[in-house]
Amino acid sequence: MVTLTASVVGAVIVALDGTVLTVAQPALRRDLRASLIQVQWTSTGYLIAVASLLVFAGRLGDHHGHRRVFALGMTGFAVASAAIGVAPGIGWVIGLRVVQGVFGALLQPATLGMLRAAYPPEELGMPIALRTGAIGVAAAAGPLVGGALVSGFGWRAVFFLGVAPALAMGALAAFVPEPERPPGSSPVSARRLDLPGAGLLATALVGLVYALVGIPDSGWTALSTSALVAAAAAGCAFVRHERRAASPLLPADVLRSPAVGRALGLLVAASAAMLGTLFVSSYVLQDVLGLDPLRTALRALPAPVAMVASAPASAVLMRRYGARRTAAVAMVVLALGVLSLSRLAEASAVVWAGMGFVLVGAGFGTVMVTATAVVVRQVPVASAGVAGALQQTALNVGPTVGVAATSTLMTCTNAAPGPTLTALAGVALLGVPLVPRLPGRSEARTTATEGPAPVP
To answer: pTM of this prediction?
Structure first.
């Protein structure tokens, strides 16, 4: 029970931090007299730090224990949050957000690694569903809680929101012993960490994320193009290095699984479509229909509510029909929801738009639970941290790609939401060809690559 609680609380604190910051940024800018670019870097710096370190952090958990890494991540995240709350200037906020991103990278893979180490593969569906549902609650509550805190106490209050629970969970995880490894599993603590591989992968991801974040604001500049070229070069060097490394950062038992690669592709496609759709919807609701941020959040509320409701249902569907059928239907539902929102600009289409948000939330929530369960189940316990890190990386890269592509499409179509949303529905459907390589109903019962682990 401690493992599940820590996993859920850790995921919620990270999700809540991101959503409340979005609401607090305008007040932060006014109070610190910051420019728009500086305010953007409070998010960009965090994202780059997280994306570049996730896989290495997951490997650290595999080597030294996921609860230890989780405890360090939660404690550091809390301290960084409190420091941001008393930061004297925008430079301090940006720097501390990068530090917060480093600790966020430590704790995020551990939230899934702890579950894989503590639950048998056939029982992972519901814990992952509860974790996903809690993230949906955070996504729904974040704008409302953030708005109330900023209105009543100022922007600094949002950074103190998760300090106490993060410190409490960090302390609890630090003093609870790691579960014993199941029989037949091989410890990896004696192996060397692949520091060159970690450096190359971090370079590739930093270049990719930096370019994708900059494209919506500045377009295809020489800097963004150079970043993409550097990312491609570092990525090729990383692949070559991993083939020769004695103890690679990405173990062969992860790379050889076709289901893991397909599930990660599903997460990228679904999150790109989901976040791209929310980006367009926010523009339409505020700039076209003239709604304020609070009313915009309320209009889009059916999406996170449906995501919360779909999470436990996904675990039941996977058990009954298998990951393959569940994911296929979910991707189609997500695409239909995105298409339904193409009428969002019509002031009279409130019910139709609400239905679209419900379908988007239900589809994305189901894909997230299903694909995450496949990724975590298909790897041995010794590589659970890397599996969790790859899942988190997909959920960081996907939205970045989605927002960048959406901004480009909106520019090319003179901000017309219909064609852009149609293209995003196509992005969701790109995931459908990946589904046949996922486990079916009978395979889902026998996907364990190691013996069952003790339940906490």
So the answer is: 0.82
